[in-house]
Amino acid sequence: MSRTEREQMEMTLPARGAASPDESGDAPPAGAASDVTFRLRVSPASPAPERPPVPVAAPEPLSAEERYEDLGCIGRGGMGEVRRVRDRILGRVLAMKIQSSEARDATLDRARFLAEARLTAELQHPGIVPVHDCGALADGRLWFTMKEVRGRTLGEVLDELYAAGGGSLSPVALRRAVDTFLRVCEAVAYAHSRGVMHRDLKPANVMIGEFGEVLVMDWGLARPAAPLFARPGAAGAADALEAAPLTQPGEVLGTLLYMAPEQARGEGDRLGAASDVYALGVVLYEILAGRHPYGGQLAAVWSALLTGGLTPVEERAPHEVPAELAGICARAMALAPEARYPDAGALAADVRSWLDGARRRERALAIVDKARAIQPEIEAIRARARALRAEARALLDGLRSFDPAGLKARGWRLEDEAEHLEREASLGQVEWMQLLRAALNEAPDLREAHEALADHHAEELIEAELARDARGAARAEALLRQHDRGRHAVLLAGDGALSLSTEPEGAEASLYRYVERDRRLVPERARELGPTPLRGVALPRGSYLVKLRAPGHHEACYPVLIERGRPWDGVRPGGRAPHPVGLLRLGELGEDDLYVPPGWFVSGGDPDAGDSLPRRRLWCDGIIVRRHPVTNAEYLAFLNALVASGREAEALECCPRLSLGRAASDAGPDSLRFERGDDGRFRLGLIPTDVQEEPRMPVAFVHWRAAMRYAAWYAAETGAPWRLLNELEWEKAARGVDGRCMPWGDFLEPTWGCMLGSHEGVAGRRPVDDFPLDESPYGLRGAAGNVRDWCVNAWKREGTRTEEGIVLLDPADDGDPDFRAARGGAWSTSPNLCRAAGRFAGKPGDRFGGIGFRLARSAPR
Asked: Which terminus of the chain is more exposed, N or C, with fewer CB under 10 A?
């Protein structure tokens, strides 16, 4: 078809849903429109003009001296020299390798040189320098031209990398160096697939070009790898080497520092692709360790080639070597050829597999860096929220409940802002965790991500256990075990140690472990610990009771809390050695006196308890406390003693009255809870519209000042320094040391204490001997119900004073009108208000049907 004729182009297009006519003009049947052929005819705007062909004259043959301009020497080697030349015809700069004129065997040298040229030309691979031309100079020496590679050798690059890294390689630098090594392996693998082995692989024969190209150089010692000829298509390049016997029997060619053992021993019949693999293994060793495996000493190399004794690369490297790479290197350098990779292709496959993981690791590390970058911001937001909460609390605590809402509005706004920031921090934490999980999706074994998550779940575990949140602790522990890589082994083991000394020494110590039975924590005998002192006795985490017995002394109950990885050493703040538990001599305790030994305990930390203090680990010196609250019978003795001493007015003021929440002066004589006989003495009687007061019931309807006067009277009567409990002393006596929610454990069962719902009939106080299960680890009764106990200290939002973690007595002044602390459960309140960490308060002159008191005194030191 001529250019002046119309040109026709046809193309077939699928046209879904089209109803175009076919060549006959008929429409296709329905449903057949999805395979319609359109014929598109395109006509050029104007015919193209005829152009005569341009004659091109073929260049006349030129000699090498005429065609190539010599630009100088690049380098010299055993088989000749390499010169930079410019091709005058094509106008490009090349490298020309010229046969040496000083060969010992000209025929063999010529054959080898020609074989190198033919072989290199045959091996067409991006990692092998292409050969462009070959020939002979006027003096008969052979030459061939090839691409000139401008750059540095692999050895030079490694020296620079190690120098830049201060003698070691960063993970990124290591990955890049191994990537270069992979490209070397791929080039050699191609040669192996063509039936050729290099025989002189070393860093000096690998060039890194100016634009990142990696080229395996100097194929002058290459020869057939006989085992490879059996492969289909493998003989092509090897044919180039068949023309002459290039290696004489027993001849050793190559560089000893990189030779395989069989090559160094001149065992030509055993040479094969695995011999090149050994040399590649040495190159990989130098990449990983920054030094030759045998220190570059020929004698050491020769000895190692004969006997083995390779030092593992991970032991010589100045940085961490990935285990996979160390294994690859060791296999490549195995003494026996059959123990190595069979060829460079198999070696490259393992290196490539590691690099794929390394690249994923780099991406994963970048994601971890993002997570680390947002963590300080999350912490800053939380800190700001805490500050706002504290500011709001201080503002609102300074106001009275009946103050106008307008005065509280600013505090509410601060709380709202804190809440907003806490939500923002929570969302930030979610993003942080999502990033770390995304990093693990990229690299499932990424240590950095696992450690960050492990640290997070370790904190969650500790917080959950401190809060006695069993489900939260179980979840956190499972996640910690999933992510921990050894850093939290001690925490996960959960073991601790007990150190304990007594005064006197030599007390027999029996260990009981608290175990939950039917929702109660029950001490079950574990083992005998032997005589005190005890030093570092290993115990699994948990709550324990140590019973101490010594001749001539009362038995002492000493609860112990073994927390994860934390010793129980009994060292008082400021001390250096375990504080001795003083055992009380027989007769120092009355029938209902209980000894609470000195030591640490967990205070507060119950979010479900009313006005609970934050969780703290505090030290409380030893105290002696009465088992029960003061009873009606005991209080009657006090009132009648006042009457007998002529202090009737004081007795009337201290007498229990029905004046709920009112001062004594506001109550009439008909409000007395006790009757008076004709002799003026007080006695129990039937109070109209109320239950009968019983002698063993705890006294109630007495104000704080009356309780303080009773304590002073009783101290004078007995000659012992009896007083009211500080509220933190009360908490330790009621809870023990492990932070339990109730005296008997963590389960709130109403029938175990006198509270609303604990029994049928009319709610009210019960004798102190009822509800024997309402008992603490020290034997304290009635802490969860019946009546609360007035405490010696004033009520403060932040709690009573401590000093360096030591509980202080901190008694309130009698004339101070501020609220007084009260602790414990009461018959008139719901079970949730009977939790041992709950805090209550009343004015010092107020009376309540659910508040009484009990006595304590400091134990002798």
From this structure: N
